[in-house]
């Protein structure tokens, strides 16, 4: 009886971990993220520092993937030009669901120093794809990117995947009824 009362706090059950299936799946998804890096400018250099041994980005369970079809989230770092925007969107569309995006640096977040006079610069990557986590800075410090990763993992851990599937199923049924 005492263990059942602790379902609200599954990680504090005196050596026994209790939780729902959704919590266990989300815990596993949050701790084994595969990412695709889309480095476009100087923020990509700072991203290399995060992957080096001093900051060790992989300690969060993140593994770089070369293909969008194998990636859980994309890190867009640097200045997104109008020419590259189409490619960023195409790569995002090729990623399997659920997919997440981390925007790294002032240029990816809002156009950076080029936003006012740069006719060729996209005024933020969120104009073409949805962004889940923004990492500020020009370029951002490696610690800021690590904090962004912690935020993304927290968001994944709290996601309601089964309710989302039920909602998508209901929307599909509504479309089928409209089609008839």
Please explain how this structure is put together.
- The protein is of the alpha/beta class.
- Helix content is 41%, strand content 12%.
- α4 links the parallel β4 (100-104) and β5.
- The chain is flat.
Detail the topology: elements first, then pairings.
Elements (H helix, E strand, L loop, with lengths): L20 H10 L3 E6 L2 H10 L11 E2 L8 E5 L4 H13 L5 E5 L1 H5 L22 E3 L6 H16 L3 H19 L1
Helix pairs in contact: 1-5, 2-5
Estimate the mean pLDDT confidence. 77
Our estimate of the beta-strand percent is: 5-15%
Number of helices: 6
Query: Could you say which structural class the secondary elements and strand pairing correspond to?
Result: alpha/beta
* Major beta-sheet overview: 5 strands, parallel
Q: Assign an overall shape.
A: flat
Low-confidence stretches: none
What series of H and E elements makes up the topology? Answer: HEHEEHEHEHH
Counting DSSP E segments of at least 2 residues, the number of strands comes to 5
Q: C-alpha Rg, in Å?
A: 19 Å
Helical percent range? 40-55%
Distance between the termini: 51 Å
Features:
single chain, 180 residues, alpha/beta, 6 helices, 41% helix
Q: Briefly, what is this?
A:
This protein has 180 residues and is of the alpha/beta class. Helix content is 41%, strand content 12%.
């Amino acid at each position: 009886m005492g263990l059942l009362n602790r379902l609200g706090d599954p990680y504090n059950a005196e050596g026994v971990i209790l939780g729902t299936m959704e919590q266990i799946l989300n815990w596993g998804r949050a701790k084994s993220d595969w990412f695709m890096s889309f480095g476009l400018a100087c923020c990509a250099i700072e991203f290399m520092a995060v992957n080096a041994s001093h900051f060790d980005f992989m300690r969060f369970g993140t593994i770089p993937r070369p293909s969008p079809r194998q990636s859980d989230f994309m890190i867009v770092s640097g200045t997104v030009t109008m020419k590259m925007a189409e490619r960023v969107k195409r790569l995002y569309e090729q990623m399997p669901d659920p997919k997440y995006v981390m925007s790294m640096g002032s240029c990816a977040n809002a156009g950076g120093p080029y936003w006012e006079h740069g006719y060729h610069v996209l005024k933020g990557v969120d104009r073409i794809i949805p962004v889940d986590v923004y990492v500020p800075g020009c370029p951002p410090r490696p610690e800021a990117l690590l904090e962004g990763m912690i935020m993304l993992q927290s968001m994944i851990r709290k996601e309601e995947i089964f309710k989302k599937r039920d909602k998508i199923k209901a929307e599909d049924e509504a479309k089928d009824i409209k089609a008839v």
